[in-house]
Amino acid sequence: MSRKKIIAGNWKMNVKPSETAALIKAVAEATAEYGDKVEIVCCTPAIDVPAAVDAAAGTKVGVGTENCHWKESGAYTGEISTGMIVDAGCHYVITGHSERRQYFGETDETVNLRTRAAIAAGLTVMMCIGETLEERDAGKLEEVIVRQMNVGLKDVTAADCAKLVIAYEPVWAIGTGRTATPDQAQEVHALIRATLAKLVGEETAQTVRIQYGGSMKPGNAAELLAKPDIDGGLIGGAALKAADFAGIIAAAANA
Ligand code: PGA
Questions:
Q1: Catalytic residue among 97, 99, 106, 189, which?
Q2: Is the pLDDT of residue 1 over 80?
Q3: Could you tell me which of 246, 148, 166 has the C-alpha nearest to residue 205?
Q4: Closest C-alpha to 10, from 63, 88, 77, 72
Q5: Catalytic residue at 169?
Q6: How does pLDDT run across 56-69, given as a tens digit for each residue?
Q7: What percent of the chain clears pLDDT 90, i.e. is strictly above it?
Q8: For 155, left (φ over 0), alpha (ψ -120 to 50), or beta?
Q9: 13-69: per-residue pLDDT in tens?
Q10: pLDDT tens track for 172-231
Q11: Residue 153: phi, psi to the nearest 5?
C-alpha cells in the first residue's frame, strides 16, 4: 500500500499576519519540485489564514488552521467553526494537539467532537495523540494511545478515514530537541495502525497516513520517514524556516 507522504507545518503562536506571505512564498519556492510527490501543508494561526491562502494560491502548498470548534456558529467567544475555516479557503485542520490538551482543557471527548466536525466539513484533519514522559516511564504508553484513539475516533467511520490523518507526537519530544528514535516511533506507529484496524478494518487502516511529530528536522527526517508506518511529519520549530521545512519535504520525497 503506498501512502502519499504528508508534511505539515504547525506554526503555533508564531508568525505575524504581516510576515505570513513571505514565509508561504519561500516554502512554495523551495519545495516546488516536490509538490507532486509530497502533500505540503502549512497550519497557521487563524488570523494569518487570509494572507496564507492568498500567498499559497497557484502553488502546491495547502493551508490549514491549528484548531476548530464543533459547532457551526453561536456564542463561543474566541473559537472558529469548520465552516469558517472552509470559507476562508483552508483544506486542513489540526485537532487535539498536546498543547491544547495541556493548556486549554482539551479532552479526548472534545478532540472527538472537533475531529468529527472537521471531517463532516470536508477538511483533512490531523488528529494528534501521544504520551507524556511520565506515562511512558510508567509503562502506560499503549494504554494512553489506545484510549486517545478509541475516544478520539468514536463514531468515525471507515468512509470518514479518507479525510483522516493521525499525528503521533510524543509529548516529551515536542520542542525539546529530543526526538523519538526511528525504532521507538515505528513501534508506536504500528500500534496506531493495529488499533485503527480494530476500529475501522484492516483495509482502511492501511490507507490512513500516520505522521510523526516532535523535533523533526532535516537531519533526522530521512531515517524516520524510511520506517514503514511513518507517512509524514507534523513540524513545529523547523516549519518556521523555509529552508529547514524544505529539507524535511525533500527527505519525504526521497523516502
Ligand atoms: P516541534 O513541534 O517540531 O517544534 O517539536 C511539533 C509539534 O508540536 O507539532
A1: 97
A2: no
A3: 166
A4: 63
A5: yes
A6: 999 999 999 999 99
A7: 96
A8: left
A9: 999 999 999 999 999 999 999 999 999 999 999 999 999 999 999 999 999 999 999
A10: 998 888 888 999 999 999 999 999 999 999 999 999 999 999 999 999 999 999 999 999
A11: -110, 15
Find all residues with CB under 8 Å of 127, minimum gap 6, and list them: 94, 95, 96, 111, 115, 152, 153, 164, 165, 166, 167
> Closest residue (by CA) to atom 6 of ligand 1?
236
Q: Which residues line ligand 1 (CB under 6 A)?
A: 10, 169, 174-175, 213-216, 234-238
Is 131 among the catalytic positions?
Answer: no
